[in-house]
Amino acid sequence: MMVSLRIVISLQVLTYAVLSLTQNAAPFKLPPQSVFIDSPSFAVLGENATFRQSSLFQLFNPTNTTPPFFQIFDQSFLSIIGPSPFIREIASNNTFPFAYEAPIFNSKTNEVFFSSSISMKDVDAALAVNSTSTINVPVTEVCLIFNLMVVTATHAFILQLDLPETVQMTNGGTGPFKGSLLFVTNGRGPRPASVVLVNPLSPNNATVLLDNFFGRQFNSLDDVKVHPSGNIFFTDLTIASIDHIRPPPLIPPQVYRLDPNARTVRVVATGFMEPNGIAFSPDGETAYISDTGSLAATVDQTKTATIFAFDVDKKTQAFKNRSVFAYTDAGIPDGIHVDTKGNVYAGCGDGVQVWNDEGTLLGKFFIGSSIANMIFTGDGRMVILAGNKIFLANIAAKGLPPLFP
Ligand SMILES: *[C@@H]1O[C@H](CO)[C@@H](O)[C@H](O)[C@H]1NC(C)=O
Ligand SMILES: *[C@@H]1O[C@H](CO)[C@@H](O)[C@H](O)[C@H]1NC(C)=O
Ligand SMILES: *[C@@H]1O[C@H](CO)[C@@H](O)[C@H](O)[C@H]1NC(C)=O
Ligand SMILES: *[C@@H]1O[C@H](CO)[C@@H](O)[C@H](O)[C@H]1NC(C)=O
Ligand SMILES: *[C@@H]1O[C@H](CO)[C@@H](O)[C@H](O)[C@H]1NC(C)=O
Question: Can you give the residue ranges of the SMP-30/Gluconolactonase/LRE-like region domain (predicted)?
Answer without folding.
Answer: 196-380
